[in-house]
Amino acid sequence: MNDTEDHITIIGIAGGTGSGKTTVVQKIVKSLPPHYVAVVPLDSYYNDTTDLTDEERKAINFDHPDAFDWKLLIKQINELRLGNPIEQPTYSYILSNRLPETIHVEPKPVIIIEGIMTLINKKLRDMMDLKIFVDCDSDERLIRNIQRDTIDRGRTVSMVVNRYLSVLKPMHEQFIEPTKRYADLIIPQGGENAKGIAILCKYIEGIVPPEK
């Protein structure tokens, strides 16, 4: 382990879709010095589906662990941990495929990996200094999914509800909910839990290296 690796804190934040993970991440970023955190979203690491037809692409279950390119994510987190920059992939929900553009990410003292299944992969979990599960009532998550998907992803309310009942709910129960047991900390009520998030931020401030 080199000096750079010594000084990088890796935090994993998992939880169901619409649980408030993004709010928790934003609060952590705000509580630390500016430009101190690099956020790596799991959503950027869906498999490259360029070789598939549109029909095959539409048939992919994006709420299953097999939909993610774990190998690339682990490789890139390792690079950041070693103090090397990465070219993070970008993904389009509309095209259901990776885009040609990448995002240049520099290593920072704190790396946050955020996504629904961040805690499911053991290799990735083993790299984390802190594992967080953002918990939230299923009704709340459904409402947030409806709000987000109708506005950002061009879906109708009935499309979102059908998808929730046929895919999101069973996948959540099968894959996401069980990863709660790997968390060092569970935040109930998701992004609404101001006290829980404040305690978490204080703890993180204590474990990350001070600003040079």
SSE diagram, text form:
Elements: H1 3-6, E1 9-14, H2 21-31, E2 37-41, H3 54-58, H4 70-81, E3 86-92, E4 97-105, E5 110-114, H5 122-125, E6 130-134, H6 138-152, H7 157-176, E7 185-187, H8 194-207
Parallel strand pairs: 1-5, 1-6, 2-5, 6-7
Antiparallel strand pairs: 3-4
Helix pairs in contact: 2-8, 6-7
What can you tell me about this protein's structure?
This protein is of the alpha/beta class and 212 residues long. It has helices spanning 3-6, 21-31, 54-58, 70-81, 122-125, 138-152, 157-176, 194-207; strands at residues 9-14, 37-41, 86-92, 97-105, 110-114, 130-134, 185-187. The strands form two sheets. A five-stranded parallel sheet has the order 2-5-1-6-7, with helices on both faces. Strands 3-4 form a two-stranded antiparallel sheet. Strand 3 and strand 4 form a beta hairpin. Helix 2 (21-31) crosses helix 8 (194-207) and helix 6 crosses helix 7 (157-176). The protein is globular and about 50 Å long.
Distance between the termini: 20 Å
The largest β sheet comes out as: 5 strands, parallel
Mean pLDDT: 88
By secondary-structure content and strand pairing, the structural class works out as alpha/beta
Strand order of the largest sheet: 2-5-1-6-7
Number of helices: 8
Give the oligomeric state of the chains in this entry, treating copies of one chain as homo and distinct chains as hetero: single chain
Keywords summarizing the entry:
disordered N terminus, 7 strands, 212 residues, alpha/beta, two-stranded antiparallel ribbon, 19% strand
